[in-house]
Design brief:
CATH topology: Rossmann fold
CATH architecture: 3-Layer(aba) Sandwich
Distance between the termini: 27 Å
Helix content: 10-25%
Strand order of the largest sheet: 5-6-4-3-7-8-9
CATH class: Alpha Beta
Order of helices and strands: EEHHEHEEEEHEE
Number of strands: 9
Radius of gyration: 16 Å
Shape: globular
Structural class: alpha/beta
Number of helices: 4
Largest sheet: 7 strands, mixed
Length: about 170
Amino acid sequence: MKKLEDYVVSIPDFPEEGIIFRDVTSVLQDADGLQLAIDTMQELVSDLEYDVVAGAESRGFIFGTPIAYNNKKPFVLIRKKGKLPRETVEISYELEYGQATIEMHKDSIKPGQKVLVVDDLIATGGTTEAMIKLIESLGGVVVGVVVLMELAGLEGRKKLEGYRLDAAICYPGK
């Protein structure tokens, strides 16, 4: 039986020399890989109690929705600014090459709800940190973060001190 890492295609020198790009689409394109990814991520947080699953556009949707469905929990979308039709809350944060703004519906998290954050990857941790701040601004309590891949060399985990972070695959480099 293949390991989850076997489904990830690593592309050297992309997007620039010295970087190894870990391609999540290779996991999604294989039925066994996708099932193993969802099952592994779900197992990592099987001991957590949570009321809601939240995921960021777009790959957080891919991995978060089946986890929510399998556990009979609602799924909350965190999207890029301007994509949600009702009243929203938003947060802007720094990226490696600029700034981004994400938002969610103001009524998507109720005060005191326990939230599991799901995404495909944690690198520098900026997006995940912003998602946590956004959820907490609505009174949600983030009980854990689960990702398919962690690029440990970029030290994103440091931005999440005090929060539980589980990764199905951890790559030591960038």
